[in-house]
Amino acid sequence: MHERMHTNSKGCTRTRKHARKLKRTNARKLVPFLEYCVCHASVLTILVISFERYYAICRPLRASYTCTKMRACTCILTIWAAAVMLSWSDHIYLS
């Protein structure tokens, strides 16, 4: 059976079979990265929740104006950014 050849923007030709193999290879690399990312994010989230609860128990009067929605959103974004950076370094180191 004859396969169609594809030409990309650089002028290189390759078959659909090769393109599918390349996608599978990239997907195999993406799954461990996402696993590491979610694992790091969950650990960091539990850590931040623990600190917030500690602060709310030890300083209840200050916690009402210190623990705000804006600070929570900032913490979430920081957690995910840190998780991606940690996962990226693990992914590069282990690859």
UniProtKB/TrEMBL annotation:
PROSITE patterns xref list: G_PROTEIN_RECEP_F1_1, G_PROTEIN_RECEP_F1_2
Membrane-spanning parts: 33-51, 72-89
Subcellular location, record wording: Membrane
Top-rank taxon, per record: Eukaryota
Alphabetized InterPro entries for the sequence: GPCR_Rhodpsn (IPR000276), GPCR_Rhodpsn_7TM (IPR017452)
GO molecular function, one term: G protein-coupled receptor activity
Family that this chain belongs to: Belongs to the G-protein coupled receptor 1 family.
Name assigned to this protein: G-protein coupled receptors family 1 profile domain-containing protein
Organism: Petrolisthes manimaculis
